[in-house]
Amino acid sequence: MQADVQQQNVRTFIDPALKGPLDQLPPELSLITKASVLEARATVHTMLKFPDTPGVTVEKKQISTSEGNVPVFIYRPENSPAITPAILWIHGGGFIMGRADSNDFAGEFAKKLNATVISVEYRLAPEHPFPAGHNDVYAAFLWMVEHAQKLGIDPDRIAVGGDSAGAGMAAGMVLHNRDAKGPAIALQLLIYPMLDNLHNTPSGSIEDYPVWNRQTSFNAWEMYLGGKNPGTSASPYAAPARAKDVSGLPKTFMTIGTVDLFRDEVVDYAQRLMAAGVPTELAVFPGMYHGSQVFVPDAPVSQKMRNAYLSALKDALYKK
């Protein structure tokens, strides 16, 4: 009975200030399958044409890796100091959509934090399943560190972050970097991260979430994981919730809305980090659905979420 009530009422918990865009979402995004992913991707890429950020320059580069070239977009504040902190940014899109130059986060980070932001155009599933995108992201991080002087960034002040699937990829990359005893990371910033290929939680059992529903999520996971879902045997670098050991990770900031499929997996991962001694801050915002602070940036709760993750980045990149 309780599950039925939750299924029926989940959308009634949405903050009224955030409801407007939900009636205007394209129907092709209501359920994304392998057969429809190209249509959905084209629709989303059209939607992601955010305006340029005044006072921020954008430069495209190609990183040469053992698996081919990886494009990156470098966002820099104009008239910045010779050396800035940096953020490796990993865009969202369920592993199957999205683009590195969407500028829904990168320009704001560069301007408000006076930081260099490097956004990675990683390979997308299903054409390129895990570990393709993961390898692109980690190669970009190592390239940032290796070329820090030429890029004008401080290698001791690099944050790694993303939103949605990009945040899940960030978490997986940070686990990989820990295991590889790689360079120091000042902060992992996980904005409503996609962490768990099983969705075996109370929030994950509900079907009818706006923007990103349960069946679409399972379909995306299967595309990312190579056409099948290996369950608990999935690599933790792909599905960080599968990690048995989360100790030794960098300082972490996580945020999620209460009306989000990922809510409980995010809370669970944060609790595991805390129990392992990782300095962790978790911010949960009432009435927010997946990506709502991007859809309705002026809503009071959207501003609260944005201010929270901007503050976390500022603290990690500037406080010694």
UniProtKB/TrEMBL annotation:
It comes from the Bacteria. GO terms for molecular function: hydrolase activity. Keywords: Hydrolase. Residues 87-291 form the Alpha/beta hydrolase fold-3 domain. It holds the Pfam family Abhydrolase_3. The keyword Protease does not apply. The keyword Nucleus does not apply. PANTHER family: AB HYDROLASE SUPERFAMILY PROTEIN C4A8.06C, ALPHA_BETA HYDROLASE FOLD-3 DOMAIN-CONTAINING PROTEIN-RELATED. This is Alpha/beta hydrolase fold-3 domain-containing protein.
